[in-house]
Design brief:
- This protein is an alpha/beta fold and about 350 residues long.
- The chain has 2 domains: about 250 residues, QueA-like (3-Layer(aba) Sandwich), CATH 3.40.1780; about 80 residues, Thrombin, subunit H.
- About 20% of the residues lie in helices and about 25% in strands.
- The chain is built from 6 helices and 17 strands.
- The strands form 3 sheets. The chain has a 9-stranded mixed beta sheet. A 6-stranded antiparallel beta barrel has the order 5-6-7-10-9-8.
- The longest helix has 16 residues.
- The radius of gyration is 21 Å and the shape is globular.
Length: about 350
Amino acid sequence: MTDSPIPIDWFDYDLPEELIAQHPVEPRDSARMLVVDRARQQITDHVFSDLPRFLQPGDLIVVNDTRVLRARLFAQRDTGGRIDFLLLQRAADGRWTSLARPARRLRIGERLRLVAPDGQLGNDIIEVVSRSAEEIVVRFDDEGAIERAGRVPLPPYIHEDVGDPERYQTVYARESGSAAAPTAGMHFTPELIQRCEASGIGMTSLTLHVGLGTFQPIKTQDVRDHPMHAEVYAVEPSTIQALRETRAAGGRIVAVGTTSVRTLESIADQVLATDGTEPIAGSTRLYITPGYQFKLVDRMITNFHLPRTTLLLLVASIMGEDLMRRAYEHAIRERYRFYSFGDAMLIV
């Protein structure tokens, strides 16, 4: 981080509400794509299916293969009252940290029956194990209840029914565990992936499970004072090898989404300084703000982010604050679609 204060007001902007995308476009790769050329300081308009035009043989696209958990659950108390649970993180002993609403009257040891997606009361049980001021720890008699009774949680700014819950997943989602989707990757289709590979552009994956802290607004006036949340990641040896080979051959590493960027930069020293082939796993609190020197990431694909968030700071860090403001002003003026189901930005 820089030693100088970074006012949060620098990362605010006004967005017309009608530009918040309420549903995804079809096909996925027909989303618009704003291409930001840092060297030329140019901003141009394209569609996501144009992506291979802006990459070259030997480049490596790195995606986050996390899968959104059916983390939203409704349960009924013996009194008949209903509770809305949102699962956040699983512990090794099978207990889950969650949010609950309303939570005030929940008792430790209380067992509630889960409500199926069709609205019928089922036989699956969720039990309150412990609680704090903000979080509830729960466990299930059978964790299969999460898939049977859970719903995919959508961000609060999406008010319309998505229909198929798979539309809030990437086409390569594999490892279940996120509370929200890594939305920059939602524009990829199997056909586009094949076109990239046919052009000599590689693709590999890592896993970072997205927590709700990702989307929390920064509440401190100096962004340096913001307490960064932690997220768990895992990177397989095949990905580590692909990163090393790409860097050695002079190819560019193209991170898809802020989650991929944070993971890559968190493991950069291990990837670059050693030749080991062991998987790398851990948790990261890496906080990328203007002034950060990127070690692995050369290019980035991202969506348009909420103001006053760590996501927007990360984007400003890789493209520069002034260019970031110009890009967002252009996107608003040209009526791009914003946030989770919105359009894409390619930073080259």
